[in-house]
Amino acid sequence: MGLFKKEACCLCGGKTGMFDKKCESGKVCKECVKKMSPWFDDYKNASAGALDAQRLGREIDAGLTQIYNFNKIFGEFGVILIDEKEKKFTAFPDTSSGLFGSQRKVTSINDVLDLGPDIIRFDQVKDFEIDIKEMTREEKRTENGQQVSYDPPHILYMETFTLRMKIDHPYVKSMYIQLNDGAVQIKNEGRRIWTDPGRKLAAHLLHLPQLVTEDHAAIYDNASLLETFLRSDYEMPDISYGFKCTPYNWEDIRKYHYYLAMAREIQDIITGTAE
Fold first, then answer.
1. Where does the pLDDT of residue 189 fall: very low under 50, low under 70, confident under 90, or very high at 90 and above?
2. So where are the chain's domains?
3. Cβ distance 195 to 238 under 8 Å?
4. Residue 35 three-state SS
5. What pLDDT was estimated at residue 4?
6. In this structure, how many other beta carbons lie within 10 angstroms of the beta carbon of residue 85?
7. Ramachandran quadrant class, 57 (left: phi over 0; alpha: psi -120 to 50; beta: rest)
């Protein structure tokens, strides 16, 4: 008699292993887990009936994906596909298949659809938050064999952009979609301060109460993410969001604004409002 008793999968009757998921009705094998939503993790409180209903619902969604027109796709690490006309979207949490960024399992819309996505209606999104996680590290120089600070200090800011949604759905309760694959790194020399022009322009682009009212405001009245980046380089330094814009961090500040504008556009499409 073996030390561990083998337990049949409560969904398909197949073999299960020591580390397979457990639900209310027993254990669930790896093959059946693959048929569940990547956003679902509450196996402990799920019955075999509920899991089987989820599997069936995902099969139905997979068949319906062919009738939707996912006209917008966003994200490099996590990915979100949006059908604006039908007011529906689907998303996948991780496009990588290994520890290295060059290994991808999602490179096109069809790749996402082949994974059996969950179709979510816009009105099922009950809370939408843009989470910008920031880590910092001071860069130092070597002087007489010792690491000493620059004057003013050189601070490296590392920014990660994530969409967080609470959802009213039978089995998808939340989604966390990281937009950028690898943090945006901005080197800032000296204090991080917001310039007055930068503050006004940021307020306008982000739809905050303080809008640009000068005569040249029409220059910044961009209808889309693309138009934002078609402005001349002369206008871009104002969009520094508190970073001192120099020739050394120029492109990184543009990347920061790119992901922020992307996150705002997704929020505006799904909820009808941007923060």
1. confident
2. 1-67, 125-271
3. yes
4. coil
5. 55
6. 9
7. alpha
